[in-house]
Specification:
Elements lengths: L2 E7 L5 H9 L4 E5 L3 H8 L6 H7 L4 H9 L7 E7 L15 E6 L2 H11 L10 H13 L5 E4 H6 L1 H11 L23 H4 L1 H4 L19 H14 L6
Parallel strand pairs: 1-3, 1-4, 2-3, 4-5
Length: about 240
């Protein structure tokens, strides 16, 4: 039976690096944000390259779940990199058919990075509300949530990825610790707008404090996101 993994993330959370990490496993295929176009259509949110994104994907999220995420695949593992905020106006009954992992980052760090691309970012752009909704869904069905915090991950990638694989019933593969530089065939068409940093990387790099201030209009998003981030903390691995 195929193991289907959704990794639900806020933006600017090393989610693409995580996709590249899983891509290096010989038993896994990966997909990059399959419901992005759906999110753009439903919300009308403007993003860099948004028209190109909408032209590149089916923008009916329920159809994507049925035809892409629940399709038959030959590999033992299928990994879907997902932005939590994309999970809007979609029938969520598919969630129990997947293993759902939550990828989070300290909100100030996340927002100072996000505001470079979205200087008008609000809490709706962070995905934190949807991460909490997914958390509650997992708890309601009696599943122990798996939360990966990027700062803990970067402190000891091998340990965290080993624990993650163990919780998913998989053997850790040390190929997950590095990847070739440059674009990957699985990248979405939005990669030129968002992936410049990760395309220069060849593996997990140590966490570095970044001194950056939030734009005045983004400060409210931090206030709202902080208690949501704290709600996720008890379920972090590593």
């Amino acid at each position: 039976m195929t193991l289907r993994i959704n990794m639900w993330s806020s933006p600017r959370n090393l989610s693409t690096a995580m996709m590249y990490s899983w891509r290096e496993r010989s038993d896994t295929i990966v997909f990059d944000e399959p419901i992005y176009a759906h999110y753009l259509r439903v919300t009308g949110r403007r993003h860099p390259g948004d028209l190109e994104v909408m032209a590149s994907q089916d923008n009916d999220g329920d159809a994507v779940v049925r035809d892409v995420m629940l399709a038959d695949y030959d590999t033992p593992v299928v990994f879907f990199k997902q932005m939590a905020k994309h999970l809007v106006d979609i029938d969520r009954s598919f969630l129990p058919k997947f293993r759902n992992v939550l990828l989070t980052r300290e909100p100030h760090d996340m927002l100072t990075s996000l505001q470079v691309r979205l200087p008008d970012a609000t809490i709706d752009d962070t995905g934190f509300p949807e991460l909490i909704e997914i958390l509650d869904t997992l708890l309601d069905v009696g599943e122990e949530p798996i939360v990966v915090d990027t700062r803990i991950l970067l402190a000891d990638p091998e340990s965290v990825l080993t624990e993650l694989c163990d919780q998913l019933g998989l053997e850790f593969d040390d190929a997950m610790l590095s990847w070739p530089a440059g674009p990957k065939p699985e990248d979405g068409v939005w990669a030129p707008h968002w992936y410049d940093g990760v395309h220069k990387s060849t593996g997990w790099q140590p966490y570095v404090d970044k001194e950056a201030e939030l734009l005045p209009g983004v400060e409210h998003a931090l206030e709202v996101a902080l208690p949501m981030y704290e709600r996720l903390r008890p379920y972090r691995i590593g």
